[in-house]
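User: Fold both of these, please.

Assistant: Here is the first one.
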Amino acid sequence: MSGAATLDSFTSLWEEWRTERDRVLAEPYGILSITSINFLTAEPVPIEGVPGRWSTSEDGPVVELAPGEELLDGDRTVTGRLALGPLAGSPPRQLRSGRILIEAFRKDGWDIVRPRDPEAPLRVGFAGTPAYDPDPRWRIAGRWLPYPAPRSVRIGSIQERLGGPVDSPGEVEFELDGRVHRLVAVPAHGAPGSIALLFRDRTSGVTTYPAQRELLVALPESGDAVVLDFTRAANKNCAYTDFAVCPLPPAGNTLDVAIEAGERIPYGRLES
C-alpha cells in the first residue's frame, strides 16, 4: 500500500470515529439531553420539570406524587408513593413523564436523579465537536507496564461530592519531544481489552477541555508494545454538560507537553 493510500485510510477511519462520536452525543436521550443532576437526601424535594418530591434512605429513592401527578414505570402508571428500592450495583432505574426520561442511579454513596429531555437546549443546539486535524505523527509507540497486582489510586470527579479509589492495572510509557512520559491507566468501561488514560497537558484550558481528556489504548495480546493514537484523545461528557459525573485524572497524569491532537473544547463551552 502506498504512503498516500495509508494516509487516506488513516484520515478516513478518524473521520468515521469523529462522526460516530457526535452521533452518539446527539442521540435523543443522550448526555446532551440531561437537564439537571440531583443528589438525593432524606429531605423530600421537588425536581424541576419532573413530577413529585424526591428523597432517599437506606431503602433507596422514594418519590411522593401529588394528586393528579403520575409517572410511567415500564408499562405501569404510578400514582401516590413509589419506592425504587436500593440501587447499588444496579443499572439506572428509568421512569417516564411524557417525553421526559428520569434516570435514578447510585454512585459513590449517593442516590442521583437526572431527567433527560430530547428538547433540551444543549441537545437541540449541538453543532458538533471541534478537533485538531488528524496527523499520523500523533500516533505514538508506547510500552505497557502492568503492575504485579492492581494498585488502588484515588480518582476525583467533576462533581465534588463524588470520587474515590479505583484499581489501576498499570502504566503506559512513551517518548515525546525527546522525553519519556508515563501515565497511570484506569479500567476502560465498555471497551474490553483496552485501558483508559485520563490526562491533562499544556493545551488543557487553552484549546482543549481543562478537566481532562481520555485516550483508550488497546492492550497487547503478547509483549508490551502499545500504540497511543492521540488523534483520538476524546472529551469526556463533562466537557459538554455540567450534569455529568466524569472522573478526573489520577495524580501525576499531567503531561508537560502540548498534545495538539484529538478533540478540542466544545463550541458551547468556549466562553464558559
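And the second sequence with its predicted structure:
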Amino acid sequence: MKVSAIRALFALVFSCAAFADQMQFESPGSNIWWTSAGPYAGVYISPYTALDVTTNKTLSIYCLDYNDEIAPPFNWDANLWQLKPGNLSHLQFGSMTQAYNLGDTAGTITSVLSSAPLTPGSYDRYLEAAWLFTRSAATSDPTAQTEFQVAAWSLFVNSGSVGAFIANINDSGTGFANAVYNDVNSAQFAVSHGWAGSGWSAVTMDPTWDQVHYGNVPVQEFLEYNATPEPSALILFGTIAAVLFCIVMRRKRLA
C-alpha cells in the first residue's frame, strides 16, 4: 500500500460521522428549580445520568436545551461529538442564526432576539454552556448550580419557550435573576478571552433516529465531560492498525 493510501485512511478517521450510541435516561437527579410560571411547578437541574447502552458506561450529562425533552424510562440514539469547530454542523444548534440575549433592568430579566449574524456565534455559545457547567460541577451549592443551569439554558432557548422561561427567572426573585445575568456575562468573557472547553463533548440526538418512539419530537441535547471516544473512530483506528500491521508483515516477507 502506498503512503498516499495510508494517509487517506487516517483522513477517514477524522472526517466520518460517529455511529449512534443507544442512550437510556436513568435519573434527573434531585435538584429542582421551583417556579410558579409556565406549565411545570419545578424543573430538574443538571447533572442528570444516562446509561450509554452501547458502551455500558454511565454518563453525567448537562442539559443545554430548554426547548425539548427526554425522561425516564425512554431510550434514544445519540452521537457523541467533541466540542470543536469542525463538529459544529453535527450539533443540534450548530446552524442557529438567531437566539435570545438576556437583558437585566433593575433585577428584571428581559430578552432580545438577536439578528443574523448571531453574536456570539453558535460555537461560542456551546463553549459558554460548557464553561457554565464546569462552574456548576465545581460547587455543591444547589442555588449556584441552578443559576449556572438556567444561564446555560438561556443561550439556546427558542421562541416557543422563551416567554415561560423568562417568567420563571423573574418569578425566582431579583437576586436570582441578577446571578443568572452575571453568569452569562462571565461565560462570554471567559470564552472571548480564550477558554476552549477542553474535554467537553455534545450528546446529540442522531438525525436518523426514529422520533416516533418519543412522541415525534426532538430529544434534548446535552454536554458531557470526558466523553467516551466516538465508537466509529475507535473502529477505524483498529482497522488502520490492522492494515498497517499487514503492510509491515508483508514487507518483512518480501525483504
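Residues 231-254 form the longest helix (24 residues).
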